[in-house]
Amino acid sequence: MDFNTILDNIFLNNFFSNWMPVIATLMIMSFLYKDNPLFKIGENVFIGISLGYFWTILWDISVKPFLIMPVMDMFVEFHWTDLTTIFWFLLASTMLFRFSRKKAWIANYYFGFIFGYMAGMYIPIQIQNILLQSTNLMKDINQGSFYETSKWIVLIFGTFSALMYFFFSKPHKGILGKTARVGIIVMMIFFGAAFGSTVMGRVSLFIDRAILLVDHPFESLVSTLGIIAFMIIYFKFIYKEKEYDDESVM
Amino acid sequence: MKKEIPILFGLIAAILWYSEFFFAGMFFDNLKVFFASGLKIAGVVGIMIGVYSVARQNYFKIKYNNERYYAILRVSMIFLMIFLGSQRGMASGTPFSSMFFNVYIPFQATTFALLAFYIASAAYRSFKAKSLESAVLLTASILVMMGKIPLGEAMWDKIPVIGEWIMDAPSSAGRRAIIFGGYLGMITMMIRIFFGLERSHLSD
Questions:
Q1: If pLDDT is split at 50, 70 and 90, which confidence band does B35 have?
Q2: What percent of chain B has pLDDT over 70?
Q3: Shortest CB distance from B47 goes to which of A62, A114, A195?
Q4: Residues in chain A within 8 Å Cβ distance of B13
Q5: Residue-range domain boundaries for chain A
């Protein structure tokens, strides 16, 4: 049996795909009681796997085609346009000096250049975005039905009044004050709706996790009992409450 | 020297890119390619610096026994993923993708699902209709939530319609106003950087 087959047997079997999601879910859920080593293990495995996953993907889609391949081609046949690669590589490498305490200013060359470039790029783009948003607002007021028309009226006047709330060149009194007050209400509705959507998103994620546990009853039962047993033993016999003196609390 | 030359660098880059927006010709086309390819290389160097930073942090954690075993576990997982990706590839049906779907996805989904409990408990404690604004916020969130679940429709068939109307009209208006503010703030910041008035991104 070669090494690749062994790897496939470990990671591509039913035991792994049935038990691992259940254990991972319950390890993280154990935090609902208290911070504990199982949660920390899960947390660190999650961080490690996500870093490893994205680095491996980035190596393939970014590092190899944009740095390794051009440098290898440079050794085969050097072209004067390759100087741009060398220039950018050297300029971007000055970022490394951010780790030094005394020479951190060298990184300013990169940041100064890149921020200037971003400034040149974003000013026209943002102006275009504002114009695009504004033109999208300007539509025929008659949208066919009362429901659709009311949406447009509220959208136009709501946006205007919410913008007026951020207009600080004049005291918020009289008509400006009243418009700004409507603006606050509009923004409160936005915050409420955003909160509601976020809660629903999180709850649907939780339902998805619960369905996973229901779909694997045996694995869930065994893992839950194991985690509960571990937590009883840990908090009863091993865990010690941290004692803070006044200075450390400060 | 430490700030003036980098600011001058930035000004030149900004003028070059800005002029590319108004003028046409081979020089400006090449300039576009120069910046576009340069950003990709800068991104690669950024990734390398990120890798270095993580390696450095974990090295110090392991060396000075600051949660040493968790750091070892974290680094082992990074190496495991890199090893699996390089050994067996990253396509679907490989150990690498199996780790992603069977370990990464459950961890990520549960971490975010956990927030449902904390959001709910925070809302229970802080959501009180003490003023008109807070009452509006509370009502909007309840209507949006009720509009998305079958219970809301079962209570009154117009609740989903109201929820949709809130999302499309006043909520959209508030979002647009905030986006407008963001754009205006960004333009102001970029103009400040353009003229060298903003220097907070440069270190001493």
A1: confident
A2: 100
A3: A62
A4: 113-114, 116-117, 120
A5: 80-138
Q: State how far residue A146 is from chain B, nearest Cα, in angstroms.
A: 12
- ipTM, two decimals, is 0.85
Alpha carbon distance B202, A111 (integer Å): 7
> Residue B174 and residue A66: Cβ atoms within 8 Å?
no
Alpha helices in B64-169 (DSSP H): 68-88, 95-99, 105-126, 132-148, 150-155, 159-168
Q: How confident is the model at residue A247 (pLDDT cuts 50, 70, 90)?
A: low
Tokens, residue B110: 């549960």
Query: Which structure tokens are listed for A29?
Result: 């859920």
Structure tokens at A75: 């050794």
Both tokens of A99, joined, read: 């780790």
